[in-house]
Amino acid sequence: MEGESSSVNQSEGRRVTLGNAAVRREAPGGVSLVVPQPNINATVAQNILLSVEYSCRGIATIEWKHVSSWGTTSIVEWKIGNYVNISTVYKDRVTTFENGSIQLHNVGMRDAGYYFVTVTEEYGNNAYGTIIVNVYEIIYEDLHFVAVLFAFLAAVSAILICFMWLCNKSLHLFQKKTHKLTASTTEEIELETIEC
């Protein structure tokens, strides 16, 4: 259909909606999962929210995993109202929310990659979602370092130029004084010669 941004696959019972960058998946048992922001761009040391919204008939178990070039890591698994099991790698860096979302604190370059969320209801039906996270280094800190280094070198250069100017001025005064002494000594010698 023209103008629509959704497709339905009847054999699997899944519905994917791509309008407004949200992805909605419905499993046959009635579990649905919405991923409002499937791509996240972050900078180092930033906190990011991996936002999802799910609905199901019973109590759900939510599990998040991270897949990157360093391997697959289980982040957290919890059942609403029962337990929260956070991986030791993410112990102080993850906050969970009842809607299935998680927040990662103080992200680094290793946090880039694919984040997979699985929502499983007590009847065994489940839904899956994926979020891609890109983490970038903060460039302005590098520029700040270069600017400070440039200012430092400029200050040192200015001090050296002033020092060289003072040395040159002192040398010039010393040569002038020496020249006057030599001239007056030569004059005295000439006067003595004339008097003799």
TrEMBL record:
Domain of life: Eukaryota
Keyword Nucleotidyltransferase in record: no
Signal sequence extent: none
Compartments, record wording: Membrane
Domain Immunoglobulin: 37-136
Keyword annotations of the record: Glycoprotein, Membrane, Signal, Transmembrane, Transmembrane helix
One GO term (biological process): positive regulation of excitatory synapse assembly
Regions crossing the membrane: 143-167
One GO cellular component, as annotated: plasma membrane
Cytoplasm recorded as keyword: no
Gene3D superfamilies recorded: Immunoglobulins (2.60.40.10)
SMART domains noted in UniProt: IG
Cross-referenced PANTHER family: SIGNALING LYMPHOCYTIC ACTIVATION MOLECULE, V-SET AND TRANSMEMBRANE DOMAIN-CONTAINING PROTEIN 5
Protein name per UniProt: V-set and transmembrane domain-containing protein 5 isoform X2
Taxonomic classification: Eukaryota, Metazoa, Chordata, Craniata, Vertebrata
